[in-house]
Fold these 2 entries.
Entry 1:
Amino acid sequence: MKKKILLCEDELAIRTGLEDLLESENYKVVSASDGQMAMEVYRKEEPDLILLDIMMPELSGYDVLKKIRRNDPVTPILMLTAKSEEIDKILGLELGADDYITKPFGLKELLARVKAALRRASLDSQFKENEIIRLGDLEVNPSTFEGKKGKVSFKLTLREVRLLQFFIKNPNKVLDRFTLLDEVWGINYEGTTRTLDQHIAKLRQKIESNPSDPRLIQTVHTVGYRFCG
């Protein structure tokens, strides 16, 4: 069965070109030209992957991302952005995007990112370790992607849950960035270690008592991270 991709892009020329490219690779493509339409098509079509432009009318890509992630932490979402500033990329990842591609991008790069994201999603669908995590006043339920620290409740993304689970399986070990990327994003992930660092920063905001002075997930300079739960 063909994988279904929701393409959210307001520029007609870009949207048409990407539709032709993806369909030539045997994907089924459903499209939206603004943020409101993106939500409608998403609810109706239940795509396997979403390509989401940030700068769209009606609702921005960030708004669409937030709405989808409220109830769907799993469907891979790749942000398409003309913005190159690091803060915009960090914001997308903090809101739950799996990856981002900066315009202008090569067609081979786009296809490689799409294939990698779908491959990771296939692996994630087999991931069923749902034992509740309890660490002091922290409690995380992997099956619902919900957590609570003290009296504060929060939502987690699939990547955040998998990072936390892998850390717990490897307490006090120094884990280099590439090991973490291979384990959580999948072998041969085409992204960068910056993606990992940004997800770690977001996870710390949720599970650490003082994210600016983390005790659970500690940075090992130039190498990676150590979990001291």
Entry 2:
Amino acid sequence: MKKTVYVILAAALAVGSLTACGSGSSDAADKTIVVGASPSPHAEILAEAQKILEKQGYTLEIKEYNDYVQPNVALDAGDLDANYFQHQPYLDQFNAEKKMDLVSAGMIHYEPFGIYAGKTTSLEGLPEGAQVAVPNDATNEARALLLLESQGIIRVKEGAGLNATKQDVIENPKNVEIIEMEAAQIPRSLQDVDIAVINGNYAIGAGLKVSDALACEDSDSIGATTYGNIVAVQKGHESDEKIKALVDAVKSSEVKAFMEEKYEGAVVPLS
């Protein structure tokens, strides 16, 4: 009888020991944050935030992606805790197309669209029939057209707003030819067109500076307020402690100062 009791006690202690180890592993996992990001500027910004998170006991793992699809697929599958590379309109479109339910945990920064010189070095000198390159994806083409409109180059149909395409251009005084192309390809084609509207991250990658742009979005423009880059998570995880810690770190004064110094206006913090 005593032997039986000892065996039961030993088994109970073993189970308790395994349970304790499991809890420890769970706690450790909760202190690990896996985030998908595009290499520049997002992964660079996260690397700066990593210093703050380390002081709070978190381990930040940054996984870099060179496209705009896989980071959302990986997040939806649970391979990532969050991602940081996109703006809300893109995420909304992605959710609708892929039947996913990813949400924003916080808006961090925006990357001003700029109009950059190709064969023509000023907007005043833009010739009749000039070729103007714009991104061909729905969420960014409208933004490019609105920037061109703000400079008097074209006028877009009233109400088109963030859904505008070149078919919505109702005034085109210089009959410019609007050439739609993949956003990533535009910097490489800059020398072949008169001017081009380029996404902030692709401008950075091509070594272009906002200070070199012929014009760029204002901080209170629809582009800045609508296309701020977000930290995205699975729905229901917006208030997780580690997600809140991540967002707070990326919005911190230290990371804000890093953005302003490193990117010289190409990345503008929104907090």
